[in-house]
Amino acid sequence: MSDSPKIRIRDLRKSFGSKVVLDGLDLDVGDGESVVVIGGSGTGKSVLLKCIIGLMEPDSGIIEIDGENVVGLPRSERDAIMRKFGMLFQGGALFDSLPVWENVAFGLMAAKHVPRPEARKVAVDKLAQVGLNEEVSTLSPSELSGGMQKRVSLARAIATDPEIIFFDEPTTGLDPIMADVINDLIVKCTRELGATGLSITHDMASARKIADRVAMLYQGKIIWAGPVAEIDSSGNDYVDQFIHGRAEGPIQMAVRRG
Amino acid sequence: MPRRMNPLATIGRGFLSILATTGRIALFAVSAVSHCVRPPFYPRLVLRQFLEIGYYSLPVVGLTTLFSGMVLALQSYTGFARFSAEGAVATVVVLSMTRELAPVLAGLMVAGRVGAAMAAEIGTMRVTEQIDALTTLSTNPFKYLIAPRLIAATISLPILVLIGDIIGVFGGYVVGVYKLDFNAATYITSTVQYLEQIDVVSGLVKAGVFGFLVALMGCYHGFNSRGGAQGVGAATTNAVVTASILILVANYIITELFFAG
Q1: What is the ipTM of this complex?
Q2: Which of A48, A86, B79, B102 has its CA 20 to 30 A from that of A217?
Q3: Residues B47-66: pLDDT tens digits?
């Protein structure tokens, strides 16, 4: 890990009513590194991501982006930091009122005030990067298959050349082949940009493919973190149960969503 | 659980939740309006909403006001004939249309047509994370989604009502002249004779307020919808019901302010 992490999280806490979701979580993500947070459904992976990206305000703790604590920062300053981010949402979250190219160019036009014709050119370039040709750019997102929507969503996430890209369950709902295609694209795109990646997933095939480091989230804490190569020899019962997908073991599945 | 059975506690809980909701809606409204007047603006989106709310509501509002004007002429004629006041039909039609019927009917129709659509669209965007996506793409959802709808609804409803006024009065004229055998010139004269500016203006002010309320309820319920398809369905219903009730309440209050003083 580099000396000054791109993202540094200390003692992050978030509760909903009496339900504690994040319970003093610590995590570092180095510059240019790809970290994958694994954990079962309802363990608070999405909450963690939303807290970092600024869609949710944590109860307490520190989230530093490039050394600057963003917790409790006023909206306008937070917005400036958000411009460093790109995000691939679980369901794609494409705007269905806009054609594909406007979806991809949305951040460029909104944040960087790139004129429409120019933004369109960039959008077509980014679509090409994820393996989609120009014909797709005028289609409506609802005309695309799930895998194609994910690609467009990935193109949108990388369109503004972000420094940090977040991936929320990038392979959920895709067949194994398309999942692998998306994983390859994630690796390729983040590498080309030199971007830092933070993903959350419960798909171990995906985690092994895109991660430099893996961190396991359980009961609101990171209980194990290490290079992806060491995940099979972690010596941690929880990690072993999770990566082998065993019903029997120390982990009890949460009933309610986190 | 004995506390749940206590009728007083049930009333109290209901009352508290109404107060809390009122407060949340008020805060939402303040925040939404403040985003309407601060840049960046989205003229393209405002225009699209004008089309959606104003232009596409024309047939519905036109038909509603046409038949209301017609039935008003017929009803008041048969009623007023009992005390030989048939001559007041034209005046009754024009005053009822401009002051009351055109704004309220147009408001309710637009609430059903547009308020529901807004809640469903924004609600779906909420549950499919499109609103979160807007935020991550440096776009404030209040400015991008809510402000254009509020602006377009508040401006386009008075225009709709003005057109509805004319169509409604025309409906009364058609029934009056062709069915009730009024003289056309006399009917038109008595239509404009007792009509004052305030009658039309009060109706247009009402329309503006109703338009704002419809958009506010549509956006509020859509924006705060939770839990998938069921949540969006509930948001849509709530948007229409609350907008309709608020229209009728606001209608009374505005009438009181204009004419009871």
Answers
A1: 0.87
A2: A86
A3: 999 999 999 999 999 999 99
